[in-house]
Request: fold
Amino acid sequence: MINRRTTLKTLAIGAVSALAFTAAALSSAAAQNKTLKIGFVGVTSGPAAAWGTSNVRSMQVRADWLNEIGGVKIGDETYDISIVTFDDQKDPKRAIAGMEKMAQEGIHYVVGPNVDDGAAAVRPVAEANGIIYFPYAFPKELYTPPASNAVLGMVANYQSGPAIYKYLMENKGVKTVAFVAANESDPLSQRDSGVAAAKALGLEVVAENDTYQTDTRDFTPIMTPIVRLQPDLLVLSGVAPANAPQLIRSARELGYQGLISAETAQDANVLQEGAGELANGFISVGGASTPEIRSPEMEEFIERYTKAYGEYNDESNTKVYALDYIIETLKANPAAIDDVEEFKKTMETFSAPNPYIKGESELKYVGMSSFGQKRQISVPMVVTEFKDGAFETLFIGEVD
Amino acid sequence: MEQVIANGLYLGAQYALIALGLTLIFALMNVLNFAHGQLYVLGGFVTYTIYGQLGLPFPVALVCSGLTLAVVGAAIEKYLFRTVIRRSVREESTMLLAAAIAFFLDSVILLLFGEKQRGVPKIIDGVFISDAVILPYDRILVGVLAVLMIAAFVLFMQYSKPGRAMRALAQDRIAAQLMGVNVNRYSMIGFALGAMLAGVVGGLLVTITGVNSGIGGPISIKAFLMVMIGGAGVVGGAIAGGFILGMMESVGLTVLREFGDVTYLVIFALLMVFLSIRPNGLMGKPWG
Reply:
């Protein structure tokens, strides 16, 4: 006999069964997603840690976001993105070990390393193991033939430097310039190319040999003789985010009144904490998305990043791009998922809508002028000026 | 030249204070504390948190840095070094332990405080400007505080009961024990004092240089350099070593700037020659 209790029991059991079936079906659908591993080899500890950390965090936030909406469809398969990271501690030997680890895990696409010597060191490993990597390092030989596995993930200093110097000559009347760099391969090579660019533009270079140890804690003795020269512009070549506030502070406290610039990306919070208002007016290459040009997707990315890590790093506006370039290129040619030669072929003609910029903007590979082949991702070159704890856009350029 | 001398004296005062804690621990326990730089960093981050983040007065933060590091130092001595020294006759064991503590603290600091460079508001604004010297007031204050702390430390070691006990320990551990000095107790106090000095100087300098989780190793190396110049285990030697290094750095960075970054190359070359002539440094060991 069917009574009310039996009916309710039957309905309850039915509802639970239906829920269980739905959950099982959903989890089975999720389980059906394959995993696409993307690597990161770069610096996430020490004075330059902010560079690599912004990479890792950008990749992780973007991957979580994509996985949350069901994964990425490449060809007939849907993939969840998994980020595999390795801290090379800015040491080329560890960078090689990191790239070997990526090869052992069967990873074909790696973001990083963050510095010149690390990027140069991993080249043989990447080429031998069929890995395309996206360094944030500037040596041209990494991107010019016969090299073909490295893709520059940002705007290089020899692209942004001349643009900044020219802007400052025309708009701020800069005539003399002094360079100071850390005694490491990256900053020194960036200084050399900066000096060459400044001289080519007709600037008088009043100091080009001043260097400092990266572990310097007080820069007053280093800045004292440079400040005496009173250059119109002081360029902090390749300066790490940890050193920039101290250098700026020392120069300003010693009475330096001119302009200060860098061609490396910086962190607004670090500048504010370390130099405060003394950093106002500091010019640097910012993240590739200013409030004026960013799309709702970029706003959401920033929101997710801030929620995940408590604070945002402006540099992540640039660092978010590499993962999207990898995924979108694989979508354009699914055969490239385990064949980097296919990836290279696709790079020649690839284009996709840029999700992070308002209006008609494209993801595309560039670099013909600088490298003779398309081995650089296209991101807006945003030059910023620090003011009261935030970066303000000075001008926006583009690399061809 | 006046500016160069002022920079050198100011740097020297900082350096001497950093080296004091290291040399004290070496004198008392014959331990090369490779984690000294990490203790400095931890002190910096305590001040950063209390003064920079919580907004409490700077002296409170500085005291907290000192106390925190004293507790950490005492715990390290009691639970780690004392055990290893008791069980191992090989000196390398304590060196390995110190290196392990350095790596451990590096990782803990990275986890707790993140990878970014951190800074705090200036403790005093303004810059002293004369015809010959430009020096921000906060650097002058830190320099004066460093000199006062060095003086207080020397007086403490010279005239207080714990100071005398620690000096006795440094001169002859067994003889001190036979004379009734509680070796364990004063070793712990000495280690805590050394760690406290590292913490206080870390807290002081965070107002000028900021702090980040990766600088512990380089700080330790610089501290060892000063101790080698002055003589390991000698308080006066550490002070002298600090001022000599500060002055050499300041002069080198001005005089040799045209030749690129050769200042430390020259300092290390001179140090090698110097140590081949005086392997025990300027004042050698033991002190007292």
Remarks:
- The longest strand of chain A covers residues 77-87.
